[in-house]
Known about the structure:
Helix content: 55-70%
Mean pLDDT: 92
Strand order of the largest sheet: 1-2
Largest sheet: 2 strands, parallel
Oligomer: single chain
Shape: elongated
Structural class: mainly alpha
Strand content: under 5%
Distance between the termini: 59 Å
Radius of gyration: 25 Å
Number of helices: 8
Amino acid sequence: MALANRMERGMDTLKVQKDTTEVTELIRSNLEFIKDILKNKTNQLRFKHAFYENDDHSSVRLIGEYDALRFIFDYYKLKIYNSELDDPNFKLDSLLVAHYNNVSEQIGYHINQDESQVNNLAYHMLNQKQFNKAEALFKLNITNYPETANCYDGLGDLYLVKGDT
């Protein structure tokens, strides 16, 4: 829930709650609504609110929608740490599979790992001479996109660099 700053100068959210004028009725109602939702911890409602001090009614829409989408789809962001990229024993392919399995479960239908994302990671691993990681990623792409020549091309590039005929 995005709350725009519709208050007059010198007014804050504490003063608004004590005010009884029509001018503050909307924000008072919104603040009361937030309190009511937060009272009931057993409702299993995923709820978040934010007060945008520097936005008014017309400008809060964009930032509020953006923040709402990030909140609703918070499980979608994939975080890969440099230490994971640098560690030759870290199973990057397993991280991707687990992440996209979670995304699929949250959304309610299956989503494969993004072909270009996996391809880029595979080439990065190839350039780092982490051949096992690169091979696992190229093969993951082949499993997910067997009709795409680019997946096989990447695996071929790996074999060429390794001198594996």
